[in-house]
Amino acid sequence: MSSRPDLTSAEQEILDRVLGPETVARICQSTETGTGLPNAAFTDPDFLALENKLLFPRTWTLAGYCHELGEPGDAVPVEVAGVPLILLRTRKGGEIKGFQNVCRHRGTQLLAEPCKGAAALACPYHGWTYSLEGKLLKRPLFEGPDGHASETDLHLYPVRTAVWHDLVFVNLDGQAPAFEDYVAPLEKQVAGYNLGSLCHAGTLTWEINANWKFIHENFTDSYHVPWCHPSLEEWTPAVTHIASNDGPVLINGNPIPREKLGDRSAGLPPFPGIAESEADRAAFFYMFPSFDLNIYPEQAAVFKLTPLEPERTFERIDLYLAPEAFEPRFDAARAEMLEIWTALNGEDIGIVEGQQKGRAAAAFDGGVLSPYWDGPASHYFAKLIAEAMTA
Questions:
Q1: pTM higher than 0.90 for the full model?
Q2: Over the stretch 229-271, which tens digit does the pLDDT of each residue have?
């Protein structure tokens, strides 16, 4: 494996230690003889730093939500790959834009909390003020008691952004292919759903003591359902799940028996205009590297993960429903839906935290893979990680 010109010698040494040629070759074998990622990929802080340099900045990453930026002047601070960002809706044209969350003067964080209807962004340290288009407007007292300098090109650092339904994506290095090309494989898979008709119905959050990759792997894994999710297994047995992949998209889905449809939906109304082929199907999509999309005939869930440390991840789930579901007669059903998601995700947390603890076992070398269950899921995920980090 040749050295990467974009890495220092110390960074190359870390990459070779975790994903050296022999390890990558083993991961990329057929599923019958291949393995998953090595322990250090889940436990080494230096490897997470490399992910924040080689993986997340170079593609499109889920960063925020349009429903939090409903009106001009609304802004939220977020973090992607360890980089502090601001997402906001401008006053000129109502566009959603992204900027690095740092004042050009002394490097102070501009925005610490979400805000509504702001006219501008002012640095809390020395009052430097920027427009919602990122232009520096004023530098009060910069040249002394009588000097209020304003003319300069020290504007905010822009970040490339794209909007897909309610979701806001960013590309930190500005070099990723067009967003339309990135999302095309997913668009093909969800063509039968009118996602644009849905409304935000609630947010659930957790801080999980596990590496972000364990959580994404778990979302793609149907094999664990009979043992970890008995109620889900009764509703949609794991043996009915069909897994596949298409480029950066991992796909898993299964039919829902007609007599079971109401068990999961809690009586909620279906998607407006849902295709007949999707009316009795559950579908799960993982879009490498940053988010999961679960779709049922009457609801959708978006999972966003933010790595905090190698062994700690912030997880956020946002739920979406048809407009009709917000009528008072569905109040109890919406509350029950949130309870179902809280319980279901709670069943997974102990599992992924156990995986994290297990990776302290030095003898473990990436495991043994099931060609049926792991081939299109966790093994494919491991290959995507290895390719993104070493290509």
A1: yes
A2: 888 877 778 888 888 889 999 998 887 765 555 544 558 998 8
Quick: pLDDT tens for 122-151.
Answer: 999 999 999 999 999 988 877 788 766 666
Say how far residue 42 (Cα) sits from the centre of its chain: 17
* d(C-alpha 76, C-alpha 84), whole Å: 11
Task: Please give the structure tokens belonging to residue 85.
Answer: 């960002």
The H or E element spanning position 80 is strand 75-80
Task: For 215-231, give the DSSP string.
Answer: HHHHHH--TTHHHH-HH
Handedness of CA 203, 209, 215, 221 (dihedral sign): negative
Tokens 């966790």 — which residue?
Answer: 378
The strand pairing partners of 61, in sequence order, are 170
Residues 389, 72 contacting (CB under 8 angstroms): no
Long-range contacts, 361-368 (Cβ 8 Å, 24+): 361/39, 362/39, 364/39, 365/35, 365/38, 366/23, 366/26, 366/27, 366/35, 366/36, 366/37, 366/38, 367/35, 367/36, 368/35
Pinpoint the alpha helices (H) of 117-220: 179-189, 212-220
Largest CA distance in the chain: 77
Q: Which domains are seen in the chain, by residue range?
A: 66-163 (2.102.10.10), 179-390 (3.90.380.10)
Amino acid (one-letter) located at 391: A
Residue 204 structure tokens = 């659930």
Give the residues across from 315 on adjacent strands: 206, 305
Give, as one character, the DSSP assignment of residue 11: H
Could you list the beta-strand ranges (E) of 198-353.
Answer: 199-208, 242-246, 249-255, 281-287, 291-296, 299-309, 312-321
CA angle in degrees (0–180, nearest 5) for 186-191-195: 90
